[in-house]
Amino acid sequence: MLASWFHFTQRNWRVVIHDDGRLPAEAGPAFEKMFPGIIKIPGAEADAVVAKALAGHPACRDYRVAHPLARKIFDMPALTGADRFIILDSDLLFFRKPEAVLRWCESGNGECWFNEDAIEALPIAQAEAREKLGFDIWPRVNSGLCLIERAAIDLDTCERALRETSLLSGHIWLVEQTLFAICASARGRGGLLPPEYEVSLEKKARPDAVARHYVGAVRQRFFAEGVARVAKELLRGP
User: Fold this and answer.
1) What CA–CA distance (Å, rounded) separates 26 from 191?
2) What are the CA-CA distances from residue 47 to residues 63, 71, 79 (Å)?
3) How many other CB atoms sit within 10 Å of the CB of residue 51?
4) Residue pLDDT, tens place only, 91-138
5) What are phi and psi of 68, to 5 degrees?
6) What's the sign of the alpha-carbon dihedral 129, 135, 140, 143?
7) pLDDT digits (tens, 9 = 90+) for 24-48
8) Of 149, 148, 123, nearest in space to 137 by CA
9) Half-sphere exposure of 84 (CA within 13 A, CB side)
């Protein structure tokens, strides 16, 4: 994922690897060799910082303990020193220059953007969101690729959603990306990236795909299709 990202953006990036305690010992040196200057945050360090950030938000704290994906929504805003950041899941590959992402990097306009999910996966109804939270939630938000303003991740809003809606009664794997959608919807600036930033259940990526997030149902295609496609570019001679 990172190799394709660096290749097609042709930029240097401040890359942070969040180790939740399960990163193999050999992975750290391998990352540092491939991407000099990469920052690895150990799980224990993250736990200490985020525990303070969530001290007044018990539902957020309990959810973080219950599921590792909660670290995406809570840890990254707490640990980054930047006002905005990009989240890249490891099952994401880039096939060409991500112009929309680079424009966001230059704009500084306070927006949040996500790739569009293959299907609607909201675990709570819009009617409930309107009643309990006071607004509609953006549909089909997928958090494999996120362009995030740190100020958009509001812990009070997350706490309300976890305590006052049926969010935790749905599929636990959908909670984190729904919290991203809720926070971005409350802010009301941004939306979904073009369909060329693909999340699909198809065997093959669209010919004009800029990137594809290989979600669980098609995870095997990451290697069968994605890596083979990217390798042609990465291994091409000068």
Assistant:
1) 38
2) 13, 10, 10
3) 12
4) 999 999 999 999 999 998 899 999 999 999 899 999 999 999 999 999
5) -65, -25
6) negative
7) 889 889 989 988 889 888 888 999 9
8) 123
9) 16
Tell me the average pLDDT across 212-236.
Answer: 91
* Spatial separation of the C-alpha atoms in residues 166 and 236, rounded to whole Å: 50
Cβ–Cβ < 8 Å for 3, 31: no
What is the residue whose two structure tokens read 């704009």?
A: 107
The pTM of this model reads 0.94
- Asked if 174 and 121 count as a contact pair (C-beta separation under 8 A), the reply is yes
The SS3 assignment for 87 reads: strand
Residue 13's contacts (CB-CB under 8 Å, 6 or more residues apart) are 5, 6
How many whole angstroms separate alpha carbon 150 and alpha carbon 85? 7
Would you state the structure tokens that stand for residue 95, as one six-digit string?
């096939």
Rounded distance, CA 119 to CA 52, Å? 36
**What is the rounded CA–CA span in Å between residue 196 and residue 76?**
26
Contact in structure between 112 and 149 (CB atoms under 8 Å): yes
Q: By C-alpha distance, which of 227, 131, 218, 133 is closest to 181? A: 133
